[in-house]
Records
---
Amino acid sequence: MKSITHHHNQALREVYQAIRGKKLQYHISTFGCQMNDHDSEKMAGLLETMGYTYTADETAADLILFNTCAVRENAELRVFGNIGRMKPLKAAKPELIVGVCGCMMQQDHMKHAIKDKYSYVDLVFGTHNLSALPDYVRRVLLEKERVVEIIADGSIVEGLPVVRNLDVKAFVTIMQGCDNFCSYCIVPYTRGREKSRTPEAILEEIEGLVEQGIKEVTLLGQNVNSYGKGLVPAIDFADLLHRVNAIEGLERIRFMTSHPKDLTDRLIEAMTLDKVMPTIHLPAQSGSDKILQAMNRKYTKADYLGLVDKLRQMIPDIAITSDLIIGFPGETEEDVDDTIDLIRRVEFDAAFTFIYSPRVGTPAAGLPDETSERTKHERFDRMLAVLNEIVIAKHKAREGRVFEVLIEGKQERSAAYQGRTKQDFLVTFSAKPEDIGQLRPVRITKARKFSLEGELV
Ligand code: SAH
Ligand code: SF4
Ligand code: F3S
């Protein structure tokens, strides 16, 4: 474990001195998952320590960072489109600093694409060296260097300042990287090997957050269920949940994401602890054993259904959400039927659905794929229709029920307040500013498409 180095602190001070009084502003565009959201919070923390202030308006910014995602092709295309927008901005304001970082930059071909084709990008770095941001900004700003620095893998860096977006709930990383190598997935290549933070560092961070008024934490990792690998003394995710559950003043604990192969009975048991919320994001990916095997997921449809039974038995009001992929190479109509059957049997509360996107360097990218895009889209629509019907019916059935919500704040574009139930369902209702941060029962009056409407009782 490392903490922010002396060298970087030195750089931080130099930038601070150089930009003092100049009112420089930064903007960060984040793509991808909560890992990236949280990395952006850390980069915001570093930039603010350097003396930059945040602006939501790109055109007013003096430094713009793109924190990129490589998980599917459309994520990458969006990033390219957004970086393209920087050209006129940079032409109008030559001193503007444009940086690109995150998962896409961990891939050689993407690093080169940005470096060679986007001359107005001043700074390129990856997922393993964001703690060096002060030094990179120093070099671009003061030495007029173009900085391109990617490292293949890194260790956990503790002690970075963090600017968080929310004042009621917060993300806390408990592990980085992924060792699962699902055959379609780029994440193990962009995030490196699994590394767990020590329980001491995690507990200290959460205690600090609770002191600042945070009521809910989401423990983050690509596969939190394998937390603890390599730590001495030995600890697993169930142990960690017990220790976090004991933190006084903390009200709610969530975690993301769980891999079905590592969801042990011990862990399901720990999910019955009072502060651990009755919800789990448990990506199934497919309901076909043949496809699951080709995906290197290491469980079968029957295993998955068995886990769902256990979860529902131990935690009756649990919400189960998932990720599903259609169009993996070699997938047939029957395989899609198996996935649809899984959806019907589990009755997911929600699921993210994706069309398979080949990723350079992953094993699946080399598989022959004879299914046309059109067929894939038809199958996708067929699956989505079944899923939507189930999700909407479950949603509708919540009308009239009372849920405990944690009141998060006012909505951006309306007078309504919003909160989340224990299951993480979004509810809007009217409330007062002093209700923010409170746990209150809410009766659901109407199920809307993506949220529930309710009233405090
Ligand atoms: N670590 C998490 C998920 C990370 S990526 C987990 O394993 O649960 C989020 C989701 O993106 C995955 O669950 C998968 O459904 C989807 N995904 C990943 N790679 C993909 C690809 N190449 N094409 C389509 N979807 C993909
Ligand atoms: Fe990707 Fe699989 Fe790791 Fe999730 S568990 S990040 S899908 S390799
Ligand atoms: Fe994307 Fe990287 Fe997350 S590839 S999904 S931002 S870990």
---
Amino acid sequence: MIRIENISKQFGKLTALHNISTSCDKGECIALIGPNGSGKTTLIKSILGMVIPDSGKILFNGLDISGNWQYREEIGYMPQIGRYPDNMNIGQVLDMMKDIRNNNRALDEDLIRGFSIDKLLNKRMRTLSGGTIQKVSAALAFLFNPKVLILDEPTAGLDPVASELFKEKIVAEKEKGKLILITSHILSDLDDLVSRIIYMQDGKLIFHKSIEQLRKDTGEERLVRSIAQVMAENYE
Ligand code: ADP
Ligand code: MG
């Protein structure tokens, strides 16, 4: 579904992405893991077309994404920090996004109801807590029923109930055959969720393997223990 071929990205002297190649298929929930600054967000933004790689290419359903906008209709993106016009209320933000997307697909309002966002429509964005902004971002990512969901640190600000509901939603969408790409520092959140792991460090892709394989290779059942082992091995 998404194919990444030899992409590199330099910010000045810093190599944020170093010749990354991999592919992500539908029906998978893939965790992008690595220390701070390892290039996870840069990789995500490259897929979204928000960062333009210096070399290499990215294919979405076989088509090169460079100079192409159409494919973004198929992606729901939840940014690490969602920014919205302060003076708009939640209802206006939702309406604005519906206007911009303007597609005829049935809306998926599960999270709007699940998070009770429908009871907060008159609240202005600037008055919302960080957790509520996260909920709005999450609801927007799923609202247009996209085939691919890209979630950058989605559970960071959510309370346990919201976080659990959100994980159930992710699993349900994965089971419908969608592709989910997720980064999180809260590895315990990923345990029952992800089917594959991409591990990055210093802009390099260290491995991309199934969670079963990672468990086998490390002899650890829990993701947090497996990754601790991988990090210790790659630490210099
Ligand atoms: P991660 O998401 O894994 O924490 P990032 O992809 O955000 O890492 O960043 C990778 C590296 O690239 C970091 O060293 C970061 O400071 C740098 N970087 C990211 N975006 C920019 C940018 N727009 N300009 C300059 N440096 C950047
Ligand atoms: Mg990041």
